[in-house]
Automatic annotation (TrEMBL):
Phylogenetic lineage: Bacteria, Pseudomonadati, Pseudomonadota, Gammaproteobacteria, Pseudomonadales
Boundaries of every DTW domain copy: 2-187
Root EC class: transferase
Species this protein is from: Pseudomonas laurylsulfativorans
Family: Belongs to the TDD superfamily. DTWD2 family.
Any one Gene Ontology BP term: tRNA processing
InterPro entries: DTW, DTWD2/TAPT
Pfam families associated with the record: DTW (PF03942)
Protein name per Swiss-Prot or TrEMBL: tRNA-uridine aminocarboxypropyltransferase
Coiled-coil spans in chain: none
Domain of life: Bacteria
EC number from the UniProt entry: 2.5.1.25
Length: 198
């Protein structure tokens, strides 16, 4: 028997995060392209980001037929938030007149790379990247390397660079509650055994 879900945050009704989700304005438009396998993931941080930002859109799939239309947002310059040899640091766009359309693939690194491969228009976008060394609060997943952040953390860091001194930290409140809830559900002993310091 399945638990009743909140139709907005997709969490079980008893663990609804909606009261913690802010409603934040941003000059930057955020386009989240979520791999379809992530939709029902318990830790769906892309959805939290899309719900908390008024100027954000979440599209689910693997091949995005509407990409040409989605990327043609008048008044915005599209940039892909994804590492690469030619990626520019986010700081390079902090003082530009034209706001960014920040395109953020959401999925495991492998799935995100596959999305780029299947969507040549996406792969061809100029890339931006965050400063190295960001520390994730995502204590339930092993990071593939230093500076690997969850989708919502990466978006918060990007927006705080692009739109300083505005704070986007309220976006992290539902994320932290989600992590705490998962840890409480598994129990401290199981959490320490699987995710604690080795």
């Amino acid at each position: 028997m399945s638990r009743i879900q909140c139709p907005r945050c997709l969490r079980p009704q008893s663990h609804c995060l909606c009261p913690l989700i802010p409603s934040l304005d941003s000059r930057t438009r955020v386009l989240l392209l979520q791999h379809s396998s992530e939709v029902n993931h318990a830790l769906n941080t892309a959805r939290l980001a899309a719900l908390g930002l008024n100027n954000a859109e979440l599209i689910v799939g693997e091949v995005f037929e509407d990409l040409p239309t989605l990327l043609k947002q008048p008044g915005y310059q599209a940039r892909l938030l994804f590492p690469g040899d030619d990626a520019q640091p986010m700081q390079a766009y902090a003082a530009t007149d034209e706001p960014l359309l920040l395109v953020v693939p959401d999925g495991t690194w492998r799935k995100a790379r596959k999305m780029l491969h299947l969507n040549p228009l996406l792969a061809a976008l100029p890339r931006v990247t965050l400063a190295e060394g960001g520390v994730s609060r995502y204590r339930l997943r092993k990071a593939p390397g230093p500076g690997a952040l969850s989708t919502v953390e990466a978006i918060v860091q990007a927006l705080e660079i692009l739109e300083a001194p505005t704070s986007f930290a309220p976006l992290l409140k539902p994320f932290e509650a989600l992590i705490e809830g998962q840890i409480a559900a598994m129990g401290e002993e199981v959490f320490q055994r699987n995710h604690g310091p080795k």
